[in-house]
Each structure stands twice: as C-alpha cells, then as structure tokens.
C-alpha cells in the first residue's frame, strides 16, 4: 500500500515531503522518491530503493530547493522493488505518483508503445505519466490532460501529478484508493492518509471516488472526473493524535486490518474475475492450458495461518479442479525426501514470502522438478523470486503480527486458482463457475456486514469468557481449518490455551476437556457437514460446555441448542470460510484487548520468521 504526500506552499517542500512519508511508513514500502519544482525552474526527481534514509541521504547530498513537490513510498504491485520501478515516474514534462492498481495496464501499455512511448519501468504508474503526456502534447493543459487520461483508466488509484510547464499546482485524483487534502495558510497538501498531514494542518477535505482536484497555494478546487462539474467537499477538523491517525482511529493495527478485509478481497479480486465468461484471468498463474490438464498432484506448502489457508485450498482444488492435493507443513516437508517431481504443482503460500521453512521446502520441490507457484503478499520477496510464477495477494501490508487480512486474501487466490484449473480441466462447468465467480464478487459487502454486524456481540462474549483457561474450536470439512485458525489467533495474541479440532475427532479424546468452564466455539454453517456437526455440538452441550455457534442466519436449531449464536449470511459452501473466520478473529482480538496484552506485537512472535 503506497504512500503519497504533496505540498504546494511557501515552505521548502523536501523536508515536508520526507516527514509526511515517514508518517506513512506504517503502510509498508520498499522504495521511495520525490519530485520537486526547483527554484531554478526545473522539475527534478530523486528515487531510492529501501528505507527513507536512503532517499534522505541523496537529498542531503544534492538538495532540491523548491516549495512545490510530491513524494511517494512504493509497496510493489507491478514490477519488483527497484529504483527504475520507484515513483515518481516521468514522461516528458509530466511526473506522476500513484497508489493502487490500473487494471487495463496491459492494453494501455500496448497502445502507448504503438504511439511511440519509451516505457522504462514495469509499473502501471509510468503508463499514466505517458498517457497524460500524450494529452498535453495534444494541446491540453495539465488539469484537462489528467482528466482525459483518467477517463481511459480502469482500476483503483490515487494519483498526484506535476507538470514542468505549470509549476504552481498539483493535480490529484482518486478512485477506490485513499487520498485526503489538507488546507493550510498559503499552502495546500495532499496525502494518502491523515497522519502525513497532521503536523501541518488539521483542516482536511476527504475526496470521494471519482473526484479530482487542483491544489494551489490558495486553495483546492474539486471537480468530478467524468463530468468536469465543480463540487464542494466539506472541510473537516481532525483532532486525532498522530498515533491514532496511523491506525485510522482503531485501537490496534490488528483491529484495523480485520476491518480492512473487504477492501483486501476487493483488491485481490480486481482484474482477475472474468465475469463475462464465468472464469478467472490466469496469466499470473504461469501455466498453459496443457500444463493445467497435465497436473498429477498439487502440494500446498505453508506455515501457521498460511497453512490453514492451504488446508482450505485443498478442499477447493479437490472439489473444483478434481486434483489430488496434499497439504504440508513446510517444516515437515523438508528432510522427509518427499516423492515429488515433474507433473506435480507445488503452491507455496506465504504472507511475507520470506518464511524460511516455506522457502526451503519450495526450493527442494523445485530441485526435484516440480513447478512452483507462489501465493504471497509481498512483491519481489524470496518465495516469489524462487518460484516459476507468482500469484500475488493484494491485501496491502499487514502490520499486526497476527495475520488476518492476508489469510482472507490467500483464500481468494486459492479459490481463483481452483476455478482457473477447473475450467481448463473440464471439471467445472459454466454454471458452477458462474456461481463461484459471482459469489466471490459479492463477498466484500458480505464480509463488511459480518464484521460490523457481529463485533459488538463478539466483544460481549469475549468479555464474558476472557478468563477461560481453555477454549475449543470445532468444525468439519471447510470449517475445520477455520477452527484451527480461530484457535491459533486466540493463542497468539491472548496467550489463552486454545485447540482447534475436527468436530468428528472430539469424541476420540478432547471431549474429556469439556466442562462448564470451557467455551466451545462451533462452526456450523449450513453445508454438507451440518447435520454431523450438530450432533457433535449436542455432545459438547451434554458435558455442560458453553457453546457458541457460528451459524447461518435463521438457523433455528443453532438458536435452540447453543448458549449464543453469531450469524453469518447464507452463501455458497465454498465461500463460508471467508465469513466464519471473521468473528473468530474478532473474538481473539477482544479477549486479548480485555486482557491487556500487546495485540500487535505479541510476546515471542515475529511477523516474518526467517529462522528454521
Ligand atoms: O509469512 P507467512 O505467511 O509465511 O508466515 C507464516 C506464519 O509464520 C504466520 O502465518 C504466523 O503463523 C502468523 N503469526 C499467524 O497469525
């Protein structure tokens, strides 16, 4: 998730831009850059890979005196982290920074190259710079050129644009990516998020999707991109502290990231669902149709939460693509000399893309001749670099150590992979594919409703059971990995002993743990396993367990048989994990918060595990 900062005023721009970018560091980044209209009448760009201190060192060595500029921290989405891919991007007199994903970048690149554009980077952003440049060459001023260019773009973006020919202004626009404007005395600012602007002004204007604005020293004038019509956006006074602002007003990053899941899924699905043909655009999967048909077996390798996503993925791959699938803990796969080779597809699932066990396991599989596909959230990280292809999740950087939004995004990629394979192998017909694709498209709204609609009830339950010594999570089929994930989340951040169990296994041992002091959280959506799960629930009730059901809306048996029910909407069976996991994440969060543990940085844990 990139960060944008802009300033037009009378103070020096460079320190303001660097300070603003520093305040956006929590969003994650791999390179940074600034563009400044210098006092000498030039428009200069400086970019550096890595931390902001690298950019700062360059600016210290060769200062850029000037009062108008834009800055950017890049979290790679198209093209690896490198100086050439870092923002700002330049085309003739035009300089652009961008946050988001331009969906029609392939067609746009081809069109621009046909017109003679020399494109230096792998990014979608540079294409925007060239497109605006062509419009300027056609005789438009900066504002009109940006407007005309934006009308040709599909996708999510927040952009800020400078032109060497109009040094007194910044043109910005927004569609589905955040951008806020700041109004000062004789200065105007823009930023991806409030914290970037807080030291300079508390008077903010929030753009709406489809808005663009021209920022000058005097003011910010907002218009609609499509009609050009002028609109008024109310000025708001922000009295948050900087720390509150980084977390968008949430108490912890984890809670913010739980709430960001609808957006994470939207971004991950964007440009990949082919709703017209009931299919998935699979070019990132790196397999030909013939390769897809020839796969003998899939191995899913992962650790921790990613392993639970992989377990869910096995159901998808077996049910939808009908491919025998093995899920392996990456740390157990190695050293066992697994029987694997050409004809096998290995999918390495990792949020960070750097987990050493997953990396080493994928390397071993590759050495044995298997094709390796990475599902990772960090572009250019070690596992995608090693893999034959990378199918990235676009959840944005995850700051909380406990993975939440990346888990949901991994589920989305595993389901899309299964749909793509199923279509090519003839195991998924058009109707079945259409149901899944349409169901996926509806998910963000349903996820938002579940998070908002259940959080108070979940918080009340967490308060009631916060001192429980043990908690059991039960589920069958697709709900089994989610039960494991619910238990892992609770252990990680609240330090409460929790176990996830296949509901059918309970009577083979763990039932001995149940008594009136043990909350038992039963995942019981209306699916093919429902009746059997109901029997297991009754076994728990008979031992006086405190049963909380995560059930489909309107499930009367759940209401009758459990102490408390958290409802999720009825969705296709394959989509239930996306919804059932949400109350479990919230439950872990609230228990930890009531206990006062360090939610975002739990003891003994690291976000990226690079030791074996
Ligand atoms: O970056 P990865 O997805 O490869 O990380 C794997 C695990 O270390 C990770 O999922 C860990 O279990 C998280 N803390 C879970 O919340």
Gist?
The chain is an alpha/beta fold.
Describe this structure in words.
By secondary structure, the protein is α/β, with parallel strands linked by helices. 38% of the residues lie in helices and 23% in strands. The strands form 5 sheets. It has an 8-stranded antiparallel sheet, with helices on one face. Strands 5-6-7-8-12-13-14 form a 7-stranded antiparallel sheet. The protein is globular, with a radius of gyration of 25 Å. The two termini are 29 Å apart. The model has no long low-confidence stretch (mean pLDDT 93). The protein binds 5-amino-5-deoxy-1-O-phosphono-D-mannitol (M6R). 5-amino-5-deoxy-1-O-phosphono-D-mannitol binds at residues 303-306, 350-352, 355, 358, 401-403, 492, 605, 608-609.
Bound molecules: 5-amino-5-deoxy-1-O-phosphono-D-mannitol
Strand order of the largest sheet: 3-2-4-1-10-9-11-15
Count of helical stretches:
19
Number of strands: 27
Number of domains: 3
Fill in the keyword field for this structure.
Rossmann fold; eight-stranded antiparallel β-sheet; Glutamine Phosphoribosylpyrophosphate, subunit 1, domain 1; 612 residues; 3 domains; single chain; alpha/beta
Please give the structural blueprint.
Elements: E1 3-8, H1 13-23, E2 31-37, E3 43-49, H2 52-61, E4 68-74, E5 89-91, E6 94-102, H3 105-114, H4 125-137, H5 142-150, E7 155-163, E8 170-175, E9 180-183, E10 188-191, E11 203-206, E12 211-215, E13 220-224, E14 230-231, E15 235-237, H6 242-246, H7 253-259, H8 261-269, E16 273-274, E17 279-280, H9 289-294, E18 297-302, H10 304-320, E19 325-329, H11 330-333, E20 344-350, H12 356-367, E21 371-376, H13 382-386, E22 389-390, H14 405-425, H15 430-465, E23 470-475, H16 479-494, E24 497-502, E25 519-524, H17 530-542, E26 546-552, H18 556-561, E27 564-568, H19 576-595
The chain binds 5-amino-5-deoxy-1-O-phosphono-D-mannitol (M6R).
């Amino acid at each position: 998730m990139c960060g944008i900062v802009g300033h037009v005023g009378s103070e020096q721009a460079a320190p303001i831009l660097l300070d603003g970018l520093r305040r956006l560091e929590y969003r994650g980044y791999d390179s940074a850059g600034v563009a400044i209209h210098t006092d000498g009448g030039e428009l200069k760009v400086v970019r550096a890979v890595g931390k902001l201190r690298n950019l700062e060192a360059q600016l210290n060595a060769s200062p850029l005196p000037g009062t108008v500029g834009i800055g950017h921290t890049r979290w790679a989405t198209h093209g690896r982290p490198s100086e050439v891919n870092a923002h700002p991007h330049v085309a003739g007199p035009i300089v652009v920074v961008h946050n988001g994903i331009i969906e029609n970048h392939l067609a746009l690149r081809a069109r621009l190259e046909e017109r003679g554009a020399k494109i230096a980077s792998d990014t979608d952003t540079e294409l925007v710079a060239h497109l605006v440049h062509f419009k300027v060459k056609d005789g438009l001023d900066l504002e009109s050129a940006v407007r005309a260019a934006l009308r040709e773009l599909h996708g999510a973006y927040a952009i800020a644009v400078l032109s060497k020919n109009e040094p007194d202004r910044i043109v910005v626009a927004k569609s589905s990516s955040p951008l806020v404007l700041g109004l000062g005395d004789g200065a105007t600012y823009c930023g991806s998020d409030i914290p970037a602007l807080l030291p300079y002004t508390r008077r903010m204007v929030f753009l709406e999707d489809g808005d663009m604005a021209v920022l000058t020293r005097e003011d910010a004038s907002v218009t609609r991109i499509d009609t050009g019509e002028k609109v008024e956006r109310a000025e708001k006074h922000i009295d948050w502290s900087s720390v509150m602002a980084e977390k968008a007003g949430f108490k912890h990053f984890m809670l913010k990231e739980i709430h960001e899941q609808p957006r994470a899924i939207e971004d991950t699905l964007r440009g990949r669902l082919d709703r017209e043909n009931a299919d998935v655009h699979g070019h990132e999967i790196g397999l030909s149709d013939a390769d897809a048909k020839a796969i003998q077996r899939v191995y899913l390798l992962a650790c921790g939460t990613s392993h639970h996503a992989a377990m869910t993925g096995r159901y998808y791959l077996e049910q939808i693509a009908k491919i025998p699938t093995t899920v392996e803990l990456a740390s157990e796969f190695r050293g066992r000399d697994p029987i694997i080779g050409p004809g096998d597809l290995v999918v390495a699932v990792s949020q960070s893309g750097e987990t050493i066990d997953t990396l080493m396991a994928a390397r071993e599989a590759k050495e044995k001749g298997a094709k390796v596909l990475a599902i990772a959230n960090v572009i250019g990280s070690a596992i995608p670099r090693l893999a034959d292809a990378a199918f990235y999740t676009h959840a944005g950087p995850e700051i909380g150590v406990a993975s939440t939004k990346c888990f949901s995004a991994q589920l989305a990629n595993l389901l899309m992979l299964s749909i793509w394979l199923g279509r090519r192998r003839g195991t998924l017909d058009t109707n079945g594919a259409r149901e899944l694709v349409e169901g996926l498209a509806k998910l963000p709204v349903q996820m938002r409703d579940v998070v908002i609609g259940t959080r108070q009830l979940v918080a009340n339950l967490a308060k009631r059971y916060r001192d429980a010594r043990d908690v059991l999570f039960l589920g069958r089929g697709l709900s089994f990995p989610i039960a494991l994930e619910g238990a892992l989340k609770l252990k990680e951040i609240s330090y409460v002993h929790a176990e996830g169990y296949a509901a059918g296994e309970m009577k083979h041992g763990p039932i001995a743990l149940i008594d009136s002091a043990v909350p038992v959280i039963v995942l019981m959506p209306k699916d093919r396993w429902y009746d059997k799960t109901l029997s297991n629930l009754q076994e728990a009730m008979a031992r006086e367990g405190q049963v909380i059901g995560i059930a489909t809306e309107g499930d009367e048996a759940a209401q009758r048989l459990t102490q408390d029910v958290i409802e999720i909407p009825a969705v296709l069976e394959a989509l239930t994990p996306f919804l059932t996991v949400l109350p479990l994440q919230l439950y872990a969060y609230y228990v930890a918060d009531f206990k006062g543990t360090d939610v975002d940085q739990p003891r003994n844990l690291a976000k990226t595990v690079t030791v074996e």
